[in-house]
Amino acid sequence: MGVMIAAFMRGITRLNDVVGRWIALLVFAMFAFLLLEVGFRYLFNSPTVWTNELTQMLFGIYAVMSGGYIMAHRGHVNVDLVHSHLAPRKRAVLDIVTSTVF
Description:
By secondary structure, the protein is mostly helical. The protein has helices at 2-43, 51-65, 67-72, 80-83, 88-101. The protein is built from 5 helices and no strands.
């Protein structure tokens, strides 16, 4: 049973890595759409009506889908003032509590 769980966890971690890398490309897409909007607005005096909404939707997707990748690579901000002074077991409990609450 433990082997199956470990294999499942490795599969989820690999999936998180793949999704995280692909989702990171959304940042470049959002940048391109906003650059397009600025160009049309200031160079041609003809703003687009769809780029702001599309960028907001892409950012929402980016925020939701990148969460697993960031958690797997411990990329979230920690307040190390408390976290670094705890014993490893208490640190693990604090990580679990803060992950579920925040």
